[in-house]
Fold this sequence. Notes:
The chain is mainly β. The chain has a single domain, classed as Beta Barrel (AttH-like fold). 9% of the residues lie in helices and 56% in strands.
Amino acid sequence: MNWLKQTVANVAGTREPIYGPDAIQPVTQQAQETPYRELTKDDLKWRAYQHTNVETQTFYIMADNGVLAMVQVIYSNVASIHTTCQFNSKIFATNRDAPHIWHSDGLHNHLFDESMLSFGADNLALTLNEAGDSYTIKSAVNPDSLVNITFSRTAPGFVVGKDGTSYFGTDHKNPWGSMSHAFWPRCKVEGTITTKEKTYDVTGRGLFIHALQGMKPHHAAAKWDFVNFQTPTYSAVMMEFTTPPSYGSTVVNVGGVVKDGEIIYAGATNTAKHIEAAQDTENDWPEPKTAKFVWDGKTKDEKPFHAELDGSLGTRLDRVDVMAEVPGFIKAIAGSVAGTKPYIYQYHSRDELSLKVKAGDEETSEPGTLFMEATFIS
């Protein structure tokens, strides 16, 4: 009966029944035994599942000249009926005096290479090099956003736990859904994005994330917090989601702190807290104003580790009404579930917040550039 209810929910977009916290095997359980594992080349393969899922490769850019941008490839399958691919690019107006430059375009004739490591479509090539440590993204999908970027990792990538994946389902041996994240937290970025008005030099630092939601997004998570903080010495990343009540409102947090050439800490014993929030009058979500993000655990050599980022998020960079902005195939996945009204609140600051790091007896504090998202779904 649970299987039948789940199948109906997957196809029709209905709200799931309450399965309880035992129906999720969060990656935090794996992390108790294996806090993290460094990525191999094989970990970067596209899964391209033939059941309901959304798979993304996202490249976040913090250029030396202050440009903040992201590019993303989305592969989506709806109930094994329809597969759609999309290319998104966004240059954020960080001075808030101009509109963001946002493009979302459907891809045609998509394909993967034989190894499933590189992706292509008409006027698009996303290619991983032979060494497995550098991506090139070349896109002429939209003439108003011509992308030519190289992302080269300067620190090891990682997944939290053994495989970076949380599994959903009442039968633990045969889960019906999953959620996974793999990170390159510190990358060297080179290249340009050319719009109608100008060419943006995006040389600087970046973060790459390969993510897979192997089920309907609103069934997997009710809310999210995402932190990308880059300083001259450190990169700190955190991804936290809270499941809907269907899975016991379980909180799953993965993240890490790295320097060039090494992972200082990675694991699942982290926290994301909104210290102050204000009710958004347009949609009633509690828009965060100040927040505190903490990474806690041990270094590779078993020294106590603690890092925190604490303070005002500043003026909101953007508020994205997901159902208004995203392509139709995402709307098809979301369905018409009562109470599902996803909004993403995005924040950015440069040299206004500092990452405080304590590894063993060594303490440092360093200002850096923040990109943070708080997402409310249901």
